[in-house]
């Protein structure tokens, strides 16, 4: 299942949708394997579907040049396979039982096989990227390095004396925004849109990716479990730093109210009980740090929109603006 395109010119929508069908088949071909176990584990997340946000962005940005260029399909497959590879690893680290409505790979085959499968999928992404040329390989390697650094720094936390909020924003930039920027960049590169368009799309993707993840922090607290398929407050339960909690911690450190300190103590406590977690979610949801996080997401959204101002006017730019709004103003 692919993500819905934002409202765009019908001819553009039809063209991107048609190429997405080709990308879907390219993904399945890429993870096919003569080894039965490797084939089954590698197909797992491809078959589970998902929003396909990154390959769609590549194809959409490709229409700033030659949207029918053959290499765009492989470029779109590369960014989605890279994303899927990271999900295998993320689910092991987060002990996530479900991914995209299906049991996580580590739940089915164990942690070791899930990690190795993530490596296999990235190997397939690299093989396809090799056909796109040395510059594509260099960009993919740099992007994957940032994905790893983002995960590393999230686990390690900020250095003593460092600003936790700035550290968190850098984690978001590396873990999410880097691949979104590369997805948009590949669209420009392999459609011949030119270096100025490429640079604008990199700036756009970096800002849009941070906005997307800050919106996720709000959604984790305010979402309906029946819509998202996950329990609100999962990050709170696991004591994973998110922007609302970091902002609350910052207020308490600066001498906030007794109510702020009481809420922070609750969030730092054992939240394994569902009722306790629900109470913590309700309390944090009512605090204005959630509204502040939403405002920060909207500020990063505006940075992304501003970067699009460097692109030529037309249906692609309009579609990207609408797409950016949808990244922030969503419920899942």
Automatic annotation (TrEMBL):
Protein name (record): Geranylgeranyl pyrophosphate synthase
Taxonomy of the source species: Bacteria, Bacillati, Actinomycetota, Actinomycetes, Micrococcales
GO biological process, one term: isoprenoid biosynthetic process
Pfam families tied to this protein: polyprenyl_synt
Single GO term (MF): metal ion binding
Keywords: Magnesium, Metal-binding, Transferase
Known cofactor(s): Mg(2+)
Family indicated by similarity: Belongs to the FPP/GGPP synthase family.
UniProt keyword Transferase, yes or no: yes
Protein's UniProt keywords contain Metal-binding: yes
InterPro entries in the record: Isoprenoid_synthase_dom_sf, Polyprenyl_synt
């Amino acid at each position: 299942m692919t993500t819905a395109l934002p409202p765009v010119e019908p001819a553009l929508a039809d063209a991107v949708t048609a190429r997405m069908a080709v990308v879907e088949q390219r993904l399945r071909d890429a993870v096919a394997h003569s080894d039965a176990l490797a084939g089954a584990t590698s197909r797992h997340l491809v078959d589970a579907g998902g929003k396909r946000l990154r390959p769609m962005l590549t194809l959409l940005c490709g229409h700033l040049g030659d949207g029918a260029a053959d290499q765009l399909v492989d470029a779109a497959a590369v960014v989605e396979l890279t994303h899927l590879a990271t999900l295998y690893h993320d689910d092991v680290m987060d002990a996530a039982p479900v991914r995209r409505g299906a049991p996580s790979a580590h739940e089915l085959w164990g942690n070791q096989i899930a990690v190795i499968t993530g490596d296999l999928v990235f190997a397939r992404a690299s093989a396809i990227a090799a056909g796109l040329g040395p510059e594509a390989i260099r960009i993919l390697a740099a992007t994957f390095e940032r994905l790893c650094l983002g995960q590393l720094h999230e686990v390690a936390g900020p250095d003593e004396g460092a600003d936790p909020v700035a550290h968190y924003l850098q984690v978001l930039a590396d873990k999410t925004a880097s691949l979104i920027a590369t997805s948009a960049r590949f669209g420009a590169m392999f459609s011949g849109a030119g270096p100025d368009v490429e640079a604008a799309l990199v700036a756009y993707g970096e800002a849009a990716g941070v906005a997307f993840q800050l919106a996720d922090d709000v959604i984790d607290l305010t979402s309906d479990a029946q819509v998202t398929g996950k329990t609100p407050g999962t990050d709170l339960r696991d004591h994973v730093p998110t922007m609302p909690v970091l902002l609350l911690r910052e207020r308490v450190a600066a001498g906030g109210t007794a109510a702020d300190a009481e809420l922070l103590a609750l969030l730092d406590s054992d939240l394994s009980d569902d009722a306790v977690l629900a109470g913590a979610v309700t309390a944090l949801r009512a605090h204005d740090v959630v509204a502040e996080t939403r405002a920060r997401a909207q500020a990063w959204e505006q940075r992304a929109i501003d970067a699009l101002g460097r692109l030529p006017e037309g249906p692609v730019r309009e579609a990207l603006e609408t797409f950016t709004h949808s990244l922030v103003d969503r419920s899942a």
